[in-house]
Amino acid sequence: MRNFTFQNATKVEFGKESYKKLPEQLKKDGIDKILMVYGRSSIKKIGLYDTLIESLNAAGIKVNEISGVQPNPRLSLVKEGLKKFKETKSQAILAVGGGSVIDTSKAISAGYYYDGDIWDLFAKKAPVKEGLPIYTILTLSATGSEMNGNAVITNEEAQQKWDISSKALYPVVTYISPELQYSLPKSQTINGAVDAISHVMEFYFDTTPRTEIQDALAEGIIKTVIKATETLIEDPEDYQCRAALAWGATLALNGLLATGKQGGDWSSHMIEHALSAVTDVAHGKGLAIVFPAFLEFSKDKIMDKLDRFAEKIFGIDTGSKGYDSDLAIKALKDWYKKIGQPVKLKEIGLEEEKIEVIADNAAQIAPFGQIQDMDKKKILEVLKIAYK
Ligand code: NZQ
Ligand code: ZN
């Protein structure tokens, strides 16, 4: 285990109807004018929008809005949101939704304190120095964005899906009320679970030796998320499973699992972001395809960990490391298939020629990865495994 500093600035209010504490919190923080950011229709369908507007107005808090955030959130809407924030002289942002809504809010927040083009921050031409106060009401557990400083945005003109990460972007308070997720379509619950498991795996397969406590936590989260997801496919209103999945997804990417490691690998994520930039596939579906292919590609470098993964997650222990590693990758893919995820690029209708385009796209930010330096040639090899 390496030395580390761990600090997470976000206060989490977890539980049934915890979001009802929001008006009181805003009053306490001296905020009486907010910009509410949300997606398309889900928060209206579940009645959350009306409840919030009513309670915020009753508390004397003026609500300005920007809506229409879509999955793989677009830079153009970030720019509109920033304009709105400035015009309305709002004091803080309220993000109500999943990762795309929260990431859009963080990008607005970072952009507010930067005079140039916001995309400079994503292109790493300038650092994120400051952020606005962000409050989030989470309606989809997946990304961990509710308790971290990351945002991933798609520049639709340049076909680039890039990220920013800064301490300045941690939400001030996040409300996680698992019952708000009863309305999720099955596929969104599943995409979320795959994303959460993938975040855990990015840290788990980091090759830093002797990280027993982090690895045990990781295994516990993966097993619990698998179990909760299987129940939720049958019964979307099982509160305890919603709660387990929600907290598991938050813990997967709130910094806890990064402690003592070298930051995690993140190659699968970088390749998946390129895949989403080119095809607009949902992040959780892209990961179900890319991650097993990446494990296959990296097998010889992470065999001890894969062998442990086989036993701890899937109860596989034949005594042969190489064989168990193969079985672990197969078991992961089989579980993805069982819950209805694609595991091959073909299944999302990708033509083989497009692989080169995706590799070029990902290579714009190469080299990346902790396990090995991923360059275009290696990215292409992963994508070829993912295609076959
Ligand atoms: O637009 P609405 O109508 O709100 O519908 C949304 C959207 O279509 C729907 N939804 C959300 N809550 C719902 C609901 N439908 C019914 N009931 C509810 N309670 O779900 C759809 C998907 O939402 P989205 O926010 O896109 O999903 P997710 O939370 O999975 O976010 C994915 C985005 O986050 C990025 C991904 O790349 C992707 O762009 N990531 C962000 C990270 C971060 N900030 O730390 C890390 C991740 O690795 C990831 O890259
Ligand atoms: Zn992810």
Number of strands: 8
Span between termini: 37 Å
Could you give me the name of the CATH homologous superfamily of the largest domain? Answer: Dehydroquinate synthase-like - alpha domain
Going by helix content, strand content and strand pairing, the class is: alpha/beta
Order of helices and strands: EHEHHEHEHHEEEEHHHHHHHHH
Please give the CATH class of the largest domain: Mainly Alpha
Largest sheet: 6 strands, parallel
Question: What overall form do the CA principal axes indicate?
Answer: globular
Low-confidence stretches: none
CATH topology of the largest domain: Dehydroquinate synthase-like, alpha domain
Keywords:
15 helices, 2 domains, binds zinc ion, ADH_Fe_CS, binds 5,6-dihydroxy-NADP, metal ion binding, 388 residues, Iron-containing alcohol dehydrogenase, Rossmann fold, two-stranded antiparallel sheet
Please give a structural write-up.
This protein is of the alpha/beta class. The protein has 2 domains: 11-180, Rossmann fold (3-Layer(aba) Sandwich), CATH 3.40.50.1970; 183-387, Dehydroquinate synthase-like, alpha domain, CATH 1.20.1090. Helices cover 49% and strands 11% of the residues. It has 15 helices and 8 strands. It has helices at residues 22-28, 42-45, 48-58, 75-87, 99-112, 119-122, 186-204, 212-234, 239-252, 267-279, 283-298, 303-314, 321-338, 354-363, 376-387; strands spanning 11-14, 33-38, 62-66, 92-97, 134-138, 150-155, 160-165, 173-176. A hairpin with a 4-residue loop joins strand 6 (150-155) and strand 7 (160-165). Helix 7 runs parallel beside helix 9. The site of 5,6-dihydroxy-NADP has 36 residues, from helix 2, helix 5, strand 6 and helix 7.
